[in-house]
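Researcher: Here's the sequence for the chain we discussed earlier.
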Amino acid sequence: MELDAIFKGKTMAQVEQVKSEIDTIMIKAKGYGLNAVFFHVRSHSNAYYISDIFEPAAKAKALIEGGFDPLEYAVDAAHSRGLEIHAWVNPYRIGASSNFPKSAHFKGFKENEDYFKSDGNYFYNPASDKAINLIVSGIEEIVQNYDVDGVHFDDYFYRAVPGSSPAAYEQALYNKYKSGGGKLHIGGWRRERVSELIKKAYTASHKRSGCVFGVSPSANVAKNRDEYYADVEKWMKNKGYLDYICPQVYFGFKHKTWAFDKTVDSWAEMERHDSVRLYIGLALHKIGTVNDQHARSEEGKSEWKTYDDIMKRSLLYVRSKPECGGVIFFRYEFFMASQMKESSSWIKEIAVREVENLLSVLRP
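Model: Thanks. This is the structure I predict for it:
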């Protein structure tokens, strides 16, 4: 659940309205037959909660500085309706400013070593111990202060780096690794550094009893490994990295190379440790889409405007696979397609029927 629409422009004078909107979300989620909500608590090294480490998210700043804690309220609102609530974090994104963490926690960070700028935005260097420790300290703060049921990372790992040689921001750290006797080539080293964060995030999440940790990577395993440097196969095979994996199978059944059913099958067949559950990420945000440009076939491109039961069939297919423990929908607002404005990119009538058909099998 992304939060900007709830908090944008709100002040403490409107805090009761914000509370009502959060309550409504939880009531509707329960009514839809959902059992958990993923609350986007940190999207760009900022906080939608009261933090000693990260600055408040801009759109919630007036509320947080006024004493209202969005995450605290959301936890209570979810639990009182019998829902789990998971803290959704994007680990490496900083944003347009390099100063989002409060100064004491950012002290000693070096640009082009611990963080870097790309296309107008800043990112943490996944290879930096300082960056890893800062991200993990943020997780520890959440699980210490809030009764969350889980911590969740999505697919934001490495972005736009040369495949066979270190990027400028990696060079010093990679040289230090090699001079210390390290043998891994650059790709293997990157994967090890991301895996170090995942392992520490898992350990930090488990500091709260009953709290789980999971990741929703790309559905393309090769892209995860070779472009994002996310070694999901390692995380799945070995205890201590994940409690669950949720590949983003954001495809229809007519996609030329990544048909939904075949992609689910491929993940179901992957080796997994007994402690790791497999969930499937469903593309609720694609319902009614006029042109799915990534589908690679004319039939696939028009699938989402041709059919009004893709979500229903997707859910039923996942339920037919004993290897799968459930689904996660992206994203919540599309359950309310009837309240959204039509545009040139999607057909409201189709989207509304998609939701109706989905709820016919999702609701208890």
